[in-house]
Each structure stands twice: as C-alpha cells, then as structure tokens.
Amino acid sequence: MSENRRVHFIPPRPVQREKRVGIYCRVSSNSMEQLKSLVNQVSALTRLTAVTPNWLLVDTYIDIASGKSGSKRKEFIRMLEDCQAKNIEIVMTKNISRFGRDTVEVLESLHKLREHGVRVIFEQEGLDTADTDSELMISIIESIAQAENESRSENIKWGYRRHAAQGTSKLYNRKCYGYENDEEGLLAIKKDEAKNVRLIFELYLRGLSIIGIKQELEKRRIKTPTGKEKWSKRTIDVMLSNEKYIGVVRLLHSSEHEEHYISENNHPAIISKEKFEAVQIEKKKRSNVVKGEDGNRRKSRKYSSKK
C-alpha cells in the first residue's frame, strides 16, 4: 500500500427540493379588456416560474371582482388556506394593487403569510418579502397605489358628470315600464305598456287607493313590469312619482344638496305634465301625517288606509 495514499471524506450532496409556487391574479371586472389583462398576468408569471430553477408551479388562483365592491375574494382565501396547510411556499403576483384592495388588507395578508413561512414576490415592483427592507417599501408603494385607485375612481365620477352635463350620458335613455329603446338606443313609447301606465294615473285621480289600483290591475290580468301576476304597492307608488313619464330624467340626484342634472323633453311623454302634477298634489293630500291648526303634527284619518 502506498504511503502517499490519502482518503478524503465526501459528504452527500443535499437533494435540492423544489419550492412549491402559487400564482395569484386578480382583475376588477369581466370586461374584455380586463380578461386580456388576466391572460397576460397568468402567462407572464407562469413563464417566470417555469424558468426559475427548483420552482414547481402548484396552483393558480384567480379572482374576478370589483376592487371596491367589498365582495369576497374566494380564490385569495383558498390561497391563504393552502399556504397555511404548507401546500404553497412562494406566492407570485403581478403587483401590490392586485394583491389587496388597501394598505391594511395587504399588510395583514403579508403578516399571515410570513407567520407560515411563505415568501411573497411582487413581480412589477421587484419586491420580495424574503428581503428585510421589503415591508417598508410595500407600505409606501401600496399607499401610492391606493391613492392612484382613488384618483381613478374620481376620474370615472368626473366622466359621469361630464356626460350628464353634455346630455350624452347613456343613462338618460335607461328604459322603464312603458318605454323601450329604439334602434339608436333612444327611449320610445311601448304602446301596450304605456296604456297601462295611463290607466294607473287615471285610476289614482278617480280616487282609487294604491291598494285599489293593485286589485284592479290584477282583476284585469295586467302583468307587472317583471311579468308577474301580483303587483306590489311599492311598484305602483314609484310609478306615480316617476318623472320619466313626462319626458324628464334626473341624473346624479342622490340629494337635494348635491349638484345634479335634469334633462327635459328628453323623450316622448306618456303622461301630461298637468296630470302628473295633479297626481303629486293628490298624493300629498293623502299623506298620513298632517299639520293641525295648532301647528302640531298628527295622524290623518282621511285616506289613512287607502293612500
């Protein structure tokens, strides 16, 4: 045996286990533009996962919901549950705005994932929660993203107001019972329904209560706007106060103290203004509450059961 012989210990090479990766994508609606964005998100993140050594794509989570609707993000919740069950070790997402709807939600989710040892990577911002400085940067960038989202919402509202002011809003031609949209999308009278609208106004001015009108409509087998046999008092009451029947449309009218827009002669009228005003006066007369000569308000017995 040679005196120069040497024996070297070679430790076993550790088996490199693949990291289990999940992709999370979210879009704000199911519009064609948003669905294209969704396809691009999934495609880009899938390619990135595929070319990264020792990464294994386990699942893809997709939510389609409004960012401000408050709706439950079922796929996001499923992703969190999979992370908690140790099925996912790395979460890939396009950017912070896709991950959460506000700063609090993003940071709370990140804390939960960190507790389970899950790493989150935001591809667009180049942020990785494995880095110690990332959480501060995430907080700053998410604040900016939230401000941009609010600005976008304000721009949408501004667009609504601008179209309302110019008379170009499609909401001016939103149909109701008695109307239909013509080939150009404008409101046109639907004759069979308009006849029933006129009947309701006539019956009210003859002295019938809303309950009485309901019974008369059902007796004549006239169907409701939704095609049902039974009319609701609420439907009839709303119809009797609907200015659309005199060719008037109000937009953005949530309060008398806020600016709103009125389009007069917007479309053909079913009811004359005189008859409409007569109904409004009659409705006030039939109100349950009246003011007495002494100035005190009390229940009125007249029309109290008929309105």
Automatic annotation (TrEMBL):
Membrane-spanning intervals of the chain: none
Pfam families: Recombinase, Resolvase
Listed InterPro entries: DNA_bind_recomb_sf, DNA_bind_recombinase_dom, Resolv_N, Resolvase-like_N_sf, SSR_resolvase
Composition-biased stretches (Basic residues): 298-307
Region Disordered, residue ranges: 287-307
Segments forming domain Resolvase/invertase-type recombinase catalytic: 20-167
Residue span(s) of domain Recombinase: 176-289
Name of this chain's protein: Recombinase family protein
